[in-house]
Amino acid sequence: MRFIIVTGLSGAGKSEATKSLEDMGYFCVDNLPPTLITKFAEACRQSDGKIDKVALVIDIRGGVFFNDLFQSLKDLEKEQFKYEILFLDATDEVLVKRFKEKRRSHPLSGGGRVITGIELEREKLREVKDKSDIIIDTSKYKIGDLREEMTKYFGDETLPEKQLSITILSFGFKYGIPVDSDLVFDVRFIPNPFYIPELKPFSGLDTPVRDYVLKQEETKSFLEKINDMLEFLIPNYQKEGKRQLIISIGCTGGRHRSVAIANQIYENLYDKNYNVYIEHRDIKEDVHKGDKKL
Asked: Which residues bind ATP (predicted)?
């Protein structure tokens, strides 16, 4: 049985995530008191395989009952139930905007400012976030994007190498480090095409910039070392049952160096038949904010 506990910040997308799981055939229960988790799991186990995919949404709406979550998780482990925790996150700015757009108050704001409720909730969920197996930051996601992410992690798995989902994510340090990163690499030591007039208008997706970045001796050494490290790390992550690996590659603006290098790492892992995805978080941000001509 695949047993998933869905939690996270209010407004981060738990409802949409649950809908996606339902579409994938999961038996979903919303706002189950944590004290009932073990009994519910046992009932599912006694269903003779009729219920083999379960998702429970548990969050601060449970009030005082939410404090029982960790004891219930210990009880699951004692009974040898395997479970995963999915945590939905988003930035404070995005959460405030979502609450205002829907004209809703935050469940912990007490009728006051939404940001106050968000800060309280983030503190209450800090420990469960640290324990989570999969963290999805929905700050820049549309509904379709979140559904795609859910399918990536919880869709049908038929091959052993599909058990670990790897995302190579390029980003710009001036826009912040992705909060869901597992590994972060800074490639700002590589010569920057931004300062070469004929290369500045392009991105790391374009051949001129890609060739410039990849021909640098620093780049060649870096790729050789990171590929060796990932060849060691990934099988060990798989052995330990890790399901999600976010490898973030950052440069200043997230448009040139990080994009070219992220693509190269992605191609290397793809050629080795890993379940790998590529995402360029800030490639458009730098066009609008860094180069007014484009």
From this structure: 8-15
Domains of the chain: 2-156 (3.40.50.300), 162-290 (no CATH)
Kindly give the interhelix angle for 217-239 and 207-214, rounded to the nearest 10 degrees.
Answer: 90
User: In the predicted model, what is the mean pLDDT of residues 238-257?
Assistant: 89
pTM over 0.85: no
User: Higher-confidence residue: 284 or 219?
Assistant: 219
Tokens matching residue 236: 């060990």
* 176 known ligand binder: no
What is residue 158's predicted lDDT score, i.e. its pLDDT?
A: 46
* pLDDT above 90: residue 284: no
pLDDT in tens, 39-80: 888 888 888 778 889 999 988 887 766 778 888 889 888 888
**Would the pLDDT of 287 be above 70?**
no
List, as own/partner pairs, every contact residues 122-129 make where C-beta atoms lie below 8 angstroms and the sequence separation is at least 24, other chains included. 122/9, 122/92, 124/60, 124/66, 125/7, 125/8, 125/9, 125/59, 125/60, 125/87, 127/70, 128/7, 128/69, 128/70, 128/85, 128/87, 129/8, 129/87, 129/89
Average pLDDT for 195-200:
92
Residue 292 is encoded by which pair of tokens?
């007014």
DSSP string, 114-166: HHHHHHHHHHHTHHHHHH-SEEEE-TT--HHHHHHHHHHHHS---SGGGGSEE
11 is in an annotated binding site: yes
Check whether 228 is labelled as a binding-site residue: no
Do the annotations mark residue 165 as ligand-binding? no
* Residue 90 known to bind ligand: no
Residue 155: exposed, middle, or buried by beta-carbon count in 10 A (0-12, 13-18, 19+)?
middle
Alpha carbons 207 and 218: distance in angstroms, whole number: 19
**Is 15 within any annotated ligand binding site?**
yes
Helices 37-45 and 69-78 cross at an angle (nearest 10°) of: 30
